[in-house]
Design brief:
Layout: E1 3-5, H1 15-21, E2 30-32, H2 40-46, H3 51-63, H4 69-80, E3 91-95, E4 98-102, H5 112-130, E5 134-139, H6 143-152, E6 158-165, H7 171-178, E7 185-190, H8 194-206, H9 208-214, E8 216-217, H10 224-240, E9 248-253, H11 258-269, E10 273-280, H12 285-292, E11 294-296, H13 316-323, H14 328-341, E12 343-345, H15 348-357, E13 358-362, H16 365-379, H17 385-395, E14 403-407, H18 415-422, E15 443-445, H19 449-461
Parallel strand pairs: 4-14, 5-6, 5-8, 6-7, 7-15, 9-10, 9-14, 10-13
Antiparallel strand pairs: 1-2, 3-4, 11-12
Helix pairs in contact: 3-4, 3-10, 4-5, 5-6, 5-10, 6-7, 10-11, 13-15, 16-17, 16-18
The structure holds pyridoxal-5'-phosphate (PLP).
Length: 462
């Protein structure tokens, strides 16, 4: 399987190189050259299989010969062994035709574990074979960093450095990053906000001497292997509700567009998805773009669903690539315009293409809080604020087709917002009940690129 860039000029890569590279050299994102279709019979056969068996069948065609069949089975098994629910992604019924896909039973209680746990295993296997060593550096507003640390802790051939804004992540998120004791894990608290951390990481990737010297690798949400791992639960939910014989729709709490884009891939493979509904909080650039055709940045307003507080949505570029007929030059042009002017207009043809797959809606802060309260009263299901954004938006898109809303984090990860809405502080699952007793280990640094680089160089040679 070959991978091509959305901007059309970066080298074509195989799965392994795509995974280890992350961002393409022309600034684009990698996508498979073609999407392998799944037959009705193959899809029907998924029903009744374990999550791990389904994952193998769905991902196999994308991986080419990077991993052997049995090797891939073993890596998938190890990736999901630490999940706190045997179904991995259990489906709950909220209402007559509305279901909740619980994606928060992984080790750090957010859906990002589905992808991170797997790519931890895939990186380890690929690096063990080549003998190479890499340095993973990432910026986080909370969930990505904890998921990355949990996935790479203790693995050979990898050091993981996560930059988070000092004082601006929740206590649970911080402790998930600072309590792992393995020597290859490095939590860095930076004086600044998320954009400060992100800018430092970007500068490190653009410093080619440093980048090549420490063998920098990226595992942020534009990494294709992360998108691929997320395709699986769209199928697991779809077949549980009757696919390929019955259609299904999904509503996805959306920030960087990685999760919902995985649903788009599932649809392209043949899963009968009627609509993919983009749910945003008041940072609603995607909802405005799909409604009006104008993709215009507007600053970030903090919200109670912080993992969706974004200014631009990186993975949207992948959907644009298809919408513009896979014309890399056209994508490069609108991305240049975005960079230069803070916005661009989606062409009429591209907008129609996008609207065939995607619908959208937004939830205000009040609507989000009211949804947590209402759903807890009506069903007993306690939603995190991100999932509540999804449920609120899904409500306006219910039809005869079953609707599945993705629950992207466990309520205990955002206890203040949940307690304010329900009156009860959500408890951590028993397997991590001692999180607040474990010792923390963190290095605090100012917003200083050379100091961060010096620390990384020193730690990886120690
Ligand atoms: C990352 C995250 C999202 C947004 O997912 P994208 O793939 O960036 O669209 C939503 N909810 C939670 C809890 C998250 O951690």
């Amino acid at each position: 399987m070959n991978y091509i860039s959305t901007r059309g000029t970066a080298p074509v890569l195989d799965f392994e190189a795509t995974m280890l590279t992350g961002l393409a050299r022309d600034g684009g994102l990698y996508l498979p050259e073609h999407i392998p279709p799944m037959t009705q019979a193959e899809m029907a056969a998924l029903a009744g299989q374990s999550y791990e068996e389904q994952a193998w069948t769905i991902m196999r065609p994308f991986i080419g010969n990077t991993f052997g069949d049995d090797e891939l089975r073993g890596l998938i098994a190890r990736a999901y062994a630490g999940f706190g629910h045997p179904a991995r992604a259990p489906l709950k019924q909220l209402d007559a035709n509305h279901f909740l896909l619980e994606l928060f039973h992984g080790p750090t209680l957010a859906f990002k574990d589905f992808a991170m746990q797997l790519i931890g295993q895939l990186f380890q296997a690929a690096l063990a074979r080549s003998g190479a060593r890499v340095t993973i550096v990432g910026a986080t507003s909370g969930d990505t960093g904890s998921a990355a640390i949990e996935a790479f802790r203790g693995l050979d051939n990898v050091d993981v450095f996560i930059l988070y804004p000092h004082g601006r992540v929740s206590d649970v998120q911080r402790r998930q990053m600072t309590t792992p004791s393995e020597a290859n894990v490095h939590a860095l608290a930076i004086d600044g906000d998320f954009d400060t951390c992100q800018a430092l990481v970007k500068d490190m990737f653009n410093d080619f001497k440093f980048r090549d010297g420490v063998k920098l690798a990226g595992v942020n949400s534009i990494n294709w292997a992360r998108v691929l791992a997320q395709v699986v639960y769209y199928f697991s939910a779809g077949v549980a509700l009757g696919a390929p014989h019955r259609p299904v729709s999904f509503t996805v709490p959306t920030g960087n567009f990685g999760d919902i884009f995985a649903g788009y891939i599932a649809r392209a493979m043949g899963l009968p998805i009627e609509k993919l509904v983009v749910a945003t909080n008041h940072n609603d650039i995607l909802h405005r773009a799909l409604s009006s055709g104008g993709y215009v940045t507007d600053g970030v307003k903090p919200s109670i669903s912080p993992s969706m507080d974004i200014q631009v949505s990186s993975n949207f570029e992948r959907a644009l690539f298809d919408a513009y007929g896979r014309d890399g030059a056209a994508v490069a042009q609108v991305m240049d315009e975005l960079k230069a002017t803070g916005g661009f207009h989606i062409s009429q043809g591209a907008l129609e293409f996008l609207r065939d797959s995607f619908a959208s809606g937004r939830a205000s802060e009040d609507e989000t809080r009211a949804t947590i309260t209402r759903v807890a009263d009506a069903t007993g299901e306690v939603l995190c604020p991100h999932s509540a954004v999804g449920v609120h938006v899904a409500q306006a898109h219910l039809s005869a087709t079953p609707m599945v809303t993705l629950a992207t984090a466990h309520p205990a990860k955002f206890p203040d917002a949940v307690e304010a809405a329900t009156g009860t502080r959500p408890a951590l699952p028993a397997r991590m009940a001692d999180l607040f007793d474990r010792p923390e280990r963190v290095t605090r640094l100012s917003d200083d690129l050379s100091a961060v680089q010096a620390l990384i160089r020193e730690r990886i040679t120690a």
